[in-house]
Design brief:
This protein is of the alpha+beta class and 110 residues long. 34% of the residues lie in helices and 21% in strands. It is built from four helices and four strands; from the N terminus they run ββαβαβαα. A two-stranded antiparallel ribbon has the order 1-2. Strand 1 (5-11) and strand 2 (17-24) form a beta hairpin. The longest helix has 13 residues, at 83-95. The chain is globular, with a radius of gyration of 13 Å. The two termini are 20 Å apart.
């Protein structure tokens, strides 16, 4: 997540990349992009000060969303650090059950 963009990677159940692109930071546009994949979808995002708007909306929409520990994610990264590579890595970690999730502070406690 950045101030202006969101890198998106969607893998199907077999691990095939169905979507890999960068879109403007527009939550409605993101949800429209993810709509065909809603069945069984889990969103993963690196923990940062920028992610609450996304996690809150995903939860409100009934989409499971997991927040990952950036340091632990970096330890398994083998590619140059780019948003596109990060998005693909998060998708692979979620699919493989290896996503290093952190505790997510509920909105009423923030």
């Amino acid at each position: 997540l950045h101030a202006r963009t969101i890198a998106v990677c969607v893998l199907d159940r077999g691990g095939v990349t169905r979507v890999e692109r960068t879109i403007p930071r527009d939550l409605d546009r993101l949800l429209a992009l993810l709509a065909p994949f809603r069945d069984g979808l889990t969103v993963g995002v690196e923990a940062s000060g920028e992610g609450h708007w996304l996690t809150d909306r995903c939860h409100a929409e009934g989409i499971p969303c997991r927040v990952g520990n950036p340091q632990r994610i970096r330890r398994v990264a083998h590619l140059a650090k780019t948003d596109r590579h990060d998005a693909a890595l998060l998708a692979r970690l979620l699919r493989g059950g290896l996503f290093p999730a952190v505790w997510e502070c509920p909105p009423h406690l923030r």
